[in-house]
Amino acid sequence: MIGTASRQRQSAQPVPHNPGQLTTSRGAALYVGALLGPGLLLLPGLAAAAAGPASILAWVALLALSGLFALVFAALGRAYPSGGGVIGYVAAGLGPRTGLAAGWAFLSGVVAGAPVVCLIGASYVTGLTGGGRVAQAGVAALLLLVVLALAARGLRTSAAAQLLLVGLLIGIVVVAVAGSAGSARAANWAPFAPHGWLAVGHAAATLMLSFVGWEAVAPLTTRFADPSRQLARVAAIALAVTTALYLGLAVVTIGVLGPGAATMVPLAGLLGRALGPAGSAVAAAAAVVLTLGAVNAYVNGATAMAGQLSRSPRVQDDSRRAPRLLAAIAGSGLLLITLYGFGLVSPAALVALPTTLFLAVYLGCMVAAARVLGGPARRAAVPAAIAVLVMLCFCGWALAAPAAVALAVTRGRFAVTRKCQTPGVT
After folding, report:
1. Quick one: which of 327, 402, 398 has its CA closest to 362?
2. Residue 205's CATH number
3. Is residue 425 domain-resident?
4. Which domain holds residue 404?
5. What is the DSSP letter of 224?
6. pLDDT in tens, 64-81
């Protein structure tokens, strides 16, 4: 999730030709950084709550789907190196108005994700200090307002800082998995599917928020000396790292915590087994740091994309655009957090909103790729599109969000600008 916003700031504007060549290792680090985020602190618990031990099947299926995503987006990046990211890719295959809808859906997903990240940090804090939903909502609102106040003063998280935050997350996951694995019990895997097999689909739709980010390789394409060779290696490294982390975390969460895995703070439970009483404190401190960095990246990414999607050149200036966007993030974020505090929405429902918006964007990208690409990339795009469509079927009420965006674009609420068109696309 942290990468979802940070790399969107990159893809929200055309990439200049070779602004400093990337090595394969540096490119892989940026790619992994775009994929991982604080969602790993929450989503294993929500997946376990949805499907029990059978949620491991959702993890495996999404990792397989990730390989298809990586192949398709790498091909799109080579074909449209300055196409404006997901907006340009969708526009290339489905037209500029559909590309515009994809852009607004992505921006809406970024904005809707900010309160989710704040609630993740708040849950780990209250897990340490005590307190129920109201306390969690209060801490989450405070975190959101702090980040927005800092953003209003011009604070921006650098790319290096974002990579450090991802490194922190990887370190915590490795310590939690390695340190608690010895406490795993085979009995925690039974019954394997306590909520039925369809629950695996619900778990996959929930977990998808941790798998958004594969399009991040596209803006890096022109920065490689040999894109055809390096992109394949970068994608392979990113897939290997995420597979090891995700599967390790999923297996240990179920094997160690058992029924207790269905919690908002699964990593705190694992760190408690690994580090003893200090585990909860370490988890809470890390969650707050990751939350502040992630939401700051969300704000910066949303600001950049809002500029690209603006229908009036007069509001391209950050000094006029940013205050309105910060107010929108504050208003929507505090509303969602308040609804959670009063028990009117569940954590899974809050996650469903940005996840559904991102899934809609990915569906557009895969369908567009199937139309404009050829060879292995086209063959990968077709099953990927079908898989995304299946996950959307499990999103329920949250489908209203992308539908509302599409309706607004169709009715002309958002103008189609030249920035939404890929070169060569009419």
Report:
1. 402
2. 1.20.1740.10
3. no
4. 2-14+22-420
5. B
6. 999 999 889 888 888 887
